[in-house]
Amino acid sequence: MPEEVTSLKSAAQQFDEETLIRRIRDGEHDLFYELIRPYERRVYAAAFAILRNEADAEDVAQEAVLKAFKHIRQFRAEARFSTWLIQITVNEARMRRRKEHAHMIQPIIDHQDEEGNYSPRDFADWREVPLETLERKEVRQKLAEALASLGEKYREVFVLRDVQHLSIEETAKTLGISPASVKTRLLRARLMLRDLLAPGLGGSWSTKLSFAKGTNPW
Amino acid sequence: MVVNCEEVWREISNYLEEDVDPGLRAAMEEHIRGCKRCTAVLDGMRNVVQLYGDERMLEVPLGFSHRLQRRVEENMPGSRRGFLGWMVAAAAAVLVAGGLEVARSSVFSHPELRAEHAQPGAGVPPDMLVVVSTDGKTFHAAGCPFIHDKAHIRTIAAREAEREGYAPCVRCMKKYLTA
Lengths: 218, 179
Fold this sequence. Notes:
The complex is a heterodimer.
Chain A: H1 2-14, H2 17-25, H3 32-36, H4 40-51, H5 54-70, H6 81-100, H7 137-148, H8 152-163, H9 168-175, H10 179-202
Helix pairs in contact in A: 4-5, 4-6, 4-8, 5-6, 7-10, 8-9, 8-10, 9-10
Chain B: H1 5-16, H2 22-34, H3 36-52, H4 64-74, H5 81-97, H6 101-109, E1 129-133, E2 138-139, E3 153-157, H7 158-163, E4 167-168
Helix pairs in contact in B: 1-3, 2-3
C-alpha cells in the first residue's frame, strides 16, 4: 500500500492546476468543483474568520466559489489560484459584513491603537505544544474562541497570514493596507493570542485559567 | 548592538518571519538567550503560529462540502441539475410524504451511487481497505490528496464502500473504473 500511495500522490501532484483551469475555460465546467475542492475548507475558514457566524460563512463561501467560476477568465497565472480564491472570499465576506452591520457601531476593540506598545504577559516557560493537541476538539474550540475575540483588523491579518498562509504582500493587497500595517497588526495579533492561550496550553485546559500578572516595564 | 525586552517584543513577529536584518537578529538572539521572559514570548508566539497554521484548524460544518458541490453543480451553465434538481427534489418529497416504504426498501436492496454521474467500480478487491468520508461520494486509497472532508473519514472494506454507494476516486482508484 505505501508504494501505491506514494505513486498515486506523485501522480496527483502532476495533475496540473493550470491545465485544469484551461480546460474549465474551454468549456469543461464539470471540472470546476475538482479545482476548488482542495481549497473549500480554506474558503470557509476565511469567510468564518470575518463573519464569525456559521450560516453567513457558508453562504458567503458558496457565493465566493460561484464568483470565482464566473470570473475564471480574469484569473492571471502569476498569482496562485488559492490566493485569488481567498481574495474573492475575503471581499465577499467584507461586503456581507458591511451590508448587514451598516447600522451598527464598530466594536470598541477595533479602535485600539495598533501603533501603541503592547506588553506581553509574563508567563512561565511555554514549551512546545505538540500538534497532536489539535486532535482534541476542546483545544480547537479554545483556539477558535481566542481568535474570534480579537478585533476585526487583527483577526483578518492573522487569518490571512497564519491560517491561510498568504504572504505579507498578498495579505496587504487583499485587505487594501500597506505591508507595514500588516506586520504591525500581525505582531499585535500573535502577541494577544499568545497571551490568551498560554495559560491553557502551558498547563491544561482542564485546570482553572490562571492569568499571571503582567508587569509593564513602561 | 544591544537590545532590550521592549525592542525584542517590537520585532519578535518579524524575527519569526526571518524579516530582520542580520545585525538586529544577532542582537535579538543574544538577548533572548539570557532573558527568560523573552524566551517565553518567542516560544509562545511560535506555538501560536504552528497551531493555527495546522490544517486541523480548518473545520467546516457537517455537510458543508456536499452542499457546496451541489450548489456549484446547480449553477454550472447548461447544467441539467438546476432544473432537474428541483424536479428530483419535488419527486422525492412526494415519495417521502406518501410514506412509500417500498421505495425505501428498493434503495437498500439496489444501492445507488451517491454521485449522480459517477462510474461504478469494476474488479475492486472486496477486502481492500479504503477511505471514505461521510459527505463524500468516492472511496480512496489512504493518503490520496483528493479525499473529501478529511475531518470525517472512515476506513472500511471496499465491499462496504460499494454497498454504501461510494464510487472509486477517479485519481487514486483509476484502475478500477469501468470506462
